[in-house]
Amino acid sequence: MRAFRLRAAEKAFAVYWGSMATDKTFYLETFGCQMNAHDSEKVIGTLEQQGYRQVESEEEAGLILYNTCSIRDKAEQKVFNRLNDYKKLHKQGKRFGVLGCVAQQEGEKIFERAPYVSLVSGSASYRKLPEMLTRLEAGEGRITGLDDRQTDETFETEFTARQNQYRGYITIIEGCDKFCSYCVVPYTRGKERSRTSTSVLHEARRIADLGYTEIQLLGQNVNSYRDPEGKMSFAELLAAVGEVAGIRRVRFTTSHPRDFTRDIVDAIDRVPTLCDHVHLPVQSGSARILKAMAREYSPEWYLERVAWIKASRRQISISTDIIVGFPGETEDDFIQTMDLLAEVEYDCVFAFKYSARPNTPALVMIDSIPEAETAKRLQALLDRQREIQRVNYSKQIGEIIEVMVEGTNPARGQIAGRSSQNKPVNFTSPHPIAPAPGSYLRVMITGAYPNSLVGESV
Per-residue pLDDT tens for 188-208? Predict the structure, then answer.
């Protein structure tokens, strides 16, 4: 009898460990932009379709994945620091994978830097993930998916696992053909390749059917979109997505000034569901620096597009990106950027110190700016922009605006949301139950800070 019980116990033990082996779990952390965040949604959907289950921490996972960003050196180093922090888990049989831009940029050198990594895949190769996962499960130790930048394929999948509660992302164009002298994106994301307008609209309707009311169209240069079917321009596609039944808000990012056309502003004016916000990176206010950056437009060209936006019937908010301390930037060049800041009066500025990136022409440019000077200029720009935003935001005190709820701040007893102009709004409500993320409320603006509005629901 005792032998029978032992054999039964051994059998149960074997069944338990067998079930653990087939319980394929993964942890995925995303670094970087909204396109990376949406890529991760597609990666998660693909993994789940292959029988994997997402968990909340590295310790719980059998497969640990980092979807990476290499737009700045700091972002890249953060990934390698994370890998180093958790390399001890490799001894427990866990596998590591590096995805995204750092994977495409560094390639097989990642195996040398982090020998415990088993999978390296750039974003253009995600469509091959099922095949790579099969090889990983078979015991292969070094698997790469590194398509060159000439691929014509986009990463479309029916298995997107949408993680955002209130906003559905759609990538309409991948890659970049602009080759700005400081930017690594063309080397990591490949050439520009657009999806058909038919597939974009099909996905927009599917998102609306899932109950989403806000869609954000994505692309490294979203307005460089060229419909392979030849049916629609970017502005026409934007309007068509805005007319999908059930959709209340449509956003798009990021626009490039060289491809920003007047019909985009006309579409925003004409279609109420298109959000009254344009993100239009300028990078510098100096013609000399813009030329060195290979941006292929002048400050005058850029300001003409700003004038189109400001002439709109709607109050369209404008935000931008600026790089400070680009090689050769003189004090006069910086003053020109500050002058442009004052002329445009942006509602938001994302400003960064220049970060040298591998393979880019700017890497070998002379006349680098001392770190202390770059930091000083960046702080001066941020201080000036803070004052501009303080004035801009205070102009909305007394207005009633529509806010989409994104969450709550229990510590302050406030609800957090965002206006159509993409401005954060923190407000109170007389109702005891907080509104669900994705719901819309009318809010009276009662106060303003440089980076947010304050109000009460009405």
Answer: 999 999 999 999 999 999 999
Average pLDDT, the chain: 92
pTM summary value: 0.90
Annotated binding residue 348 = no
The CB density around residue 145, as the number of other CB atoms within 10 Å, is 21
CA atoms within 13 A on the CB side of 353: 17
* 183 is annotated as contributing to ligand binding: yes
275 among annotated binding-site residues? no
Could you tell me which of 197, 302, 313 has the C-alpha nearest to residue 244?
A: 197
Separation of alpha carbons 54 and 249, rounded Å: 30
Residue-wise pLDDT for 209-219, tens only, equals: 999 999 999 99
Does the annotation flag 176 for ligand binding? yes
- Token pair belonging to 361: 């022409």
- Among 49, 47, 78, 79, smallest CA distance to 63 is for 47
Topology classification of domain 399-457: OB fold (Dihydrolipoamide Acetyltransferase, E2P) (2.40.50)
Q: Check whether 101 is labelled as a binding-site residue.
A: yes
Question: How are strands ordered across the β-sheet holding 117-121?
Answer: 53-54, 25-30, 63-68, 95-100, 117-121, 143-145
- Report the CATH architecture of 167-395: Alpha-Beta Horseshoe (3.80)
